[in-house]
Structures are given as C-alpha cells and as structure tokens.
Amino acid sequence: MKWLWWGLGSFFALLLAFRIGAWSTGFSSDGVGKKVGIVHISGPIVSAEGIVKQLEKISNRKDVAAIVVRIDSPGGLVAPTQEIYEKIKSIKGEKPIVSSMGSVAASGGYYVALGSDSIMANPGTILGSIGVVLNYPVMTELLDKVGIEFETVKSGELKDVGSYSRAVTKADRSHLNDMVSDMYNQFVRAVSQNRAMT
C-alpha cells in the first residue's frame, strides 16, 4: 500500500512539473492540433536578444500555426528595434504573424509592428509617433561650480560628440542632425514600404 501512495505521489509531482513547464513557455498542453504562439513586447526596447529568441523558438514549432506579437511599448533604442522588426518580417513568409497593440505602441513600438502581416489596435491605443529623438546632458556649468575639469585626448574632431563635459559645437550639432535624419529616413521608409504609403 505504501508503494501505491509513493507511485501516485510521484505521478502527480511529474504531472505538476509538466504543467508548470508548459505554462512557463507560454503554451498550454491542453488539446491537440495547431496553436497560436504569443510573444510580449512590454516597456522600453533596449535589447533585441530575448524577443528574437522567443520569436525564433515559436516560429520553429511545428504545432504553432500563427503568431501574435502583443506590443505595449513607447519605443526604445534604434538598433534593437530594427533587429526585432527584421526578425518579425523574416517570419512573415513562413507563418501568419499579427501585431496586437496594447495601451501604447509608439515610435519603436510601432516600428517593430511594421514587419507583421497585419496590425490591430484599440481606438484608445496611443499609436504612431514616427520620429527619432537624441538627447544627452551638458553639465559644463555644474562641473565648473564643483571645480571638475576634464582633459580630453581624441583621435578626431567628433570622437567625443555627446560628451557632458563640454559645450556642443556647430560641427557636433551638424553631425548629430545628420545621424537623426538618417535614422528618421529609415523609419519613414519602413512605414511606406509596409503600410502601402508613398
């Protein structure tokens, strides 16, 4: 009788472990047939690695027929945003992929959605904000007040662009404006190519 209770206890422990494993990967073990995979993008986009891995894992599953990317993000850094966008775009040819917007899908949050087959949003979703912003602190007055002085040795005129230890020059501003314009043009191109706009 003791062995029976041990056996039943082991069986239920394994069953519980299996269920927890299924829940932690975002899928249910219930039912048979095809499933829909869900990937969440929440908060500022500062890294692409985790999202790209999730997308890859789900897209490779044979039991997943379609993917929903649930976005609730104000945007973030340009490079990781573009990496996620490219990954979503590459999946589009293999499986249907839909972007579903939460409270906000602005800037980079909108950018990543452009790679999907279709975009769904609520009437109250804050959506769009096609643009690029670049800011950094200039702390020269504060450093002067506390008596901190920087000596900078650099290999080129623009090597320390964005340094908080010196004032912005005309050359700095021109260079940064060119960078922002280039990133903005990439964003506009992605919108026009994927949203049937000219």
TrEMBL record:
<comment type="similarity">
    <text>Belongs to the peptidase S49 family.</text>
</comment>
<dbReference type="InterPro" id="IPR004635">
    <property type="entry name" value="Pept_S49_SppA"/>
</dbReference>
<dbReference type="GO" id="GO:0006508">
    <property type="term" value="P:proteolysis"/>
</dbReference>
<dbReference type="InterPro" id="IPR047272">
    <property type="entry name" value="S49_SppA_C"/>
</dbReference>
<keyword id="KW-0720">Serine protease</keyword>
<protein>
    <recommendedName>
        <fullName>Peptidase S49 domain-containing protein</fullName>
    </recommendedName>
</protein>
<feature type="domain" description="Peptidase S49">
    <location>
        <begin position="92"/>
        <end position="198"/>
    </location>
</feature>
<dbReference type="InterPro" id="IPR029045">
    <property type="entry name" value="ClpP/crotonase-like_dom_sf"/>
</dbReference>
<keyword id="KW-0645">Protease</keyword>
<keyword id="KW-0378">Hydrolase</keyword>
<dbReference type="GO" id="GO:0008236">
    <property type="term" value="F:serine-type peptidase activity"/>
</dbReference>
<dbReference type="InterPro" id="IPR002142">
    <property type="entry name" value="Peptidase_S49"/>
</dbReference>
<dbReference type="Pfam" id="PF01343">
    <property type="entry name" value="Peptidase_S49"/>
</dbReference>
